[in-house]
Amino acid sequence: MNNEKYELLPETNYLGYFRIRALRDFGDVRAGDLGGFIESELCLSFTPDDVSWVYDNSTVSNGSRVSNSTVRDST
After folding, report:
1. Which positions ≥6 away from 2 have C-beta within 8 Å?
2. CA distance 60 to 40
3. How, if at all, do strands 18-22 and 6-12 pair?
4. What percentage of the chain exceeds 90 in pLDDT?
């Protein structure tokens, strides 16, 4: 399946995880919005009907997967 929901940017955090950017509008996210950091595409669903997103400076890694939910930075 092709990921038309978001892209991994070259920007990384101190752990080497990639910042994400939305490629299309979904939920309260607009195309071009920056998200948090993920270790790989395996960490965040990109199915067409899923509105999951990682916000701000939140990080998803170590085999975790976000599907049908959101992750927000608590700071």
Report:
1. none
2. 9
3. antiparallel
4. 68
Q: pLDDT exceeding 70 applies to what percent of the chain?
A: 95
CB atoms within 10 A of CB 46: 17
The residue count for the chain = 75
Structure tokens at 72: 């927000």
HEC states along 7-51? EEEEEECCCCCEEEEECCCECCECCCCEEEEECCHHHECCCCCCC
State the pairing for strand pair 70-71/59-60: unpaired
Q: What would the two tokens of residue 34 be?
A: 């920056």
For the segment 18-46, what is each residue's pLDDT rounded down to a tens digit?
999 999 999 999 999 999 999 999 999 99
